[in-house]
Amino acid sequence: MFMSWFVSKSTIVAVFKTNIGNNNEAEAVLSNLRHMFPDSKVSIDLNDCDKVLRFEIPVTGIGQVMSVVKKSGFNCEVL
């Protein structure tokens, strides 16, 4: 498995493949993630074939991000 990331001061930009399918689903997941990581930058590209979730988070938060997405009913794997 290959992980795309950029390290900067104990944060990374992690890139995840998801199966989030529409704006309503994306907003629900983004809301949960923003609540958990209020100062982080997050986006979901629904036009990408991998429905890419990009998240600038603390290095230790990758598992939490994946857990939130999966608990919301979607697949989530590190690209």
In terms of topology, how is this protein built?
Blueprint: E1 7-8, E2 11-18, H1 23-36, E3 41-45, E4 52-58, H2 62-71, E5 76-78
Antiparallel strand pairs: 1-2, 2-4, 2-5, 3-4
Briefly characterize the structure.
With 79 residues, this protein is of the alpha+beta class.
- Principal-axes geometry comes out as globular
CATH class: Alpha Beta
Mean pLDDT: 87
Q: What name is given to the CATH topology? A: Alpha-Beta Plaits
Give the low-pLDDT segments. Answer: none
Order of helices and strands: EEHEEHE
Oligomer: single chain
Strand tally: 5
> What's the structural domain tally?
1
The helix tally amounts to 2
Return the structural class: alpha+beta
What Rg, in angstroms, do the CA atoms define?
A: 11 Å
Strand content: 25-35%
CATH-derived architecture: 2-Layer Sandwich
Largest sheet: 5 strands, antiparallel
Proportion of residues in helical segments: 25-40%
Beginning-to-end CA distance, first to last residue? 7 Å
Keywords:
79 residues; 5-stranded antiparallel beta sheet; Alpha-Beta Plaits; alpha+beta; 5 strands
